[in-house]
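PROTEIN–LIGAND DATA SHEET

This sheet pairs a single protein chain with one bound small molecule, zinc ion, given as SMILES. Inputs appear in the order they were entered. The predicted three-dimensional arrangement of chain and ligand is reported afterwards as a token string under its own label.
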Amino acid sequence: MILIKNGTILTLEGNEFFTGDLAIKDSRIFYVGKSKKWDVEFDTVIDGTDFIVMPGFVNTHTHLAMVLMRGIADDIELHKWLNDVIFPIEGKLTKDDVYFGSLLASIESIKSGVTTVADFYFHMDAVFNAVKEAGIRANLGFGLASKFDFDTVKLKVATDFVKKYNDREDGRILASFAPHAPYTCTLKFMEAIAKRAKEMGVLVHTHLHETEKEIVDFKKQYGITPIQKLASVGFFGAKVNAAHCVYMSAEDYKVLKEHNVGVALNPQSNLKLGSGIPDVPEMLKYELNLGVGTDGASSNNNLILLEDMRLVSFLAKGLSRDPQLLPADELLRIATVSGAKNIGFSDVGLLKEGYKADIILINKNSETLTPFTNPHSLVAYSMRPGDVDTVIINGKLVMQHRKVLTVDEETVKKEVRKHYKRLINS
Ligand SMILES: [Zn+2]
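PREDICTION REPORTED AS:
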């Protein structure tokens, strides 16, 4: 049992904050409210006086192991980036590469206040081992691409992965199906994957409408957009988390709203790859279920969700020319509870009794939080990753005073350097 005493508490249920206590039993919050006298014996008591206490951030779209490729493929557009640089390197990735890359990515996430990630990639057994050890919450998608309509072998391997890894580690790790995109999978294959995911009650995580080229090519073949075509074959009968959604028509937005699709906004990746700008004001107008992602570190080039979250806010305000659009507390909900729901965690992202104890403590005395004014604003617009002091995930301390407790950071960095070298020189 853990008690955080006298913290500045942001529950994110509204825009209020107060000085109070938060108590954790096993993996859940059992008290959040005004400071009081306790006659319960706690294993750990944390003095929260100097900290903001709030839910951890949720990264709803990333590819953890791509930290191995950061900085080696800049200034190229998406399709060239994929075909000329990324796919050839990915062809050489071993399980061990992916394992150590995912461990480093988990460390980077935790140290910047991210307590949940939605990843999809390959060698997913290795990703499972990494997130299990790092202690981070994750939804792991089995990445799929196929030129064949009925790729029963791939579908079976993915199904076995989901069966084996869904709902593990006391619900901390979920598994999902992840068809890469409509331009790397056939329509019939996408349809079959969604049908299987619906039967098994798990998430489909995919890339949709990322570049203009993708829409133009698809329309040449089918006459309508990927989103509208996928809707016509029942793809959105499954619960879907769609990354990007940059090139969208009014009809596309309506489809996403009607089918309750989660949108993972990755504005830094879209801007850096020259793909375009997600229309955040339109998405807010259609009241879509929004979350924030970083995408992989090879197109961002880091996993610091704070940066993408801030950019979502600035795009909302800048594109609409309305600074009142998306106030700080609403932005924080998109980056926490709303994103968590999009990727299958219904009891994550608020400080509320019964919710999972995924909590971060932010240093109120740092230079970027001084003077201490409005905590929602300070977190949304001012704080830096280094201001995160302590991280609790699923009721367990995973970082204290900026030291990750679950894995040895220096050993992981050393291994990543070694694996990167082999990858580049092979
Ligand atoms: Zn992606």
